[in-house]
Design a protein that fits this description.
Elements (H helix, E strand, L loop, with lengths): L13 H23 L4 H12 L9 H8 L3 H15 L4 H8 L3 H10 L24 H21 L5 H21 L5 H20 L1 H8 L2 H6 L8
Amino acid sequence: MVSRARPGEVIIRVRMFAVAIAAAVAVGLITAVVVMHPYLSLDAQLDDDIQATNWGPLTLTFPFLTWLGGPGGIPMQAVVILLVLLLNRRAWGLALAALAGGLSYLVIVNLVNRPRPTADQILRVTEHPGSTSFPSGHLIFITISAGVLMLCLGHRYLPRWARPIGWAVVAGIVVAVGLDRIYVGAHWPSDVLAGALIAIAWLSFVVSVRWISDRALASKEKQADRPRVSLAS
């Protein structure tokens, strides 16, 4: 029992599809620059500025964010899927499609193979991951996971006025993760930006496909009132 588009109904959310294309183009441009110039002086300057800044209590979250996007990545995504299945079962398709976007990291990181920052290039390196630098996998995985929770649960249970607050929380998490990756010397700022843009591009694309996202994005009241149409009818 699934809903289907009515005759003449647009099956793509044009604005979200445009956001996906714009973010993907931005990723392509950043990737091209990084491939031609693995070391960028602007990257190094931004890295130094971020590492030289006192971020206060925010730094206390950095070890947890490092774990969450690394060894904790699989448990994090398992919890996301479990919450979606428990609280908004109709959104399981969107959740799985969105989380699949994390596979892009495995492709891009091996194609670009950018060296990570070294101690002679920036102020300090306190984390030494084994893989290459571009893009930031932490940004991709955590941004997608937080976005899935907001899309699948926030849009169902939060009132309309509270949804911008929910997205502001997601944005805050993304910024904190980005600062963490730069602060510990694991990534260049362009790695972080590319990771966030990859997640945004994929999430926007998935949401733009209405047969994937319509059921997930409906509020609790709309889901209860929406008629079900059988494919056999």
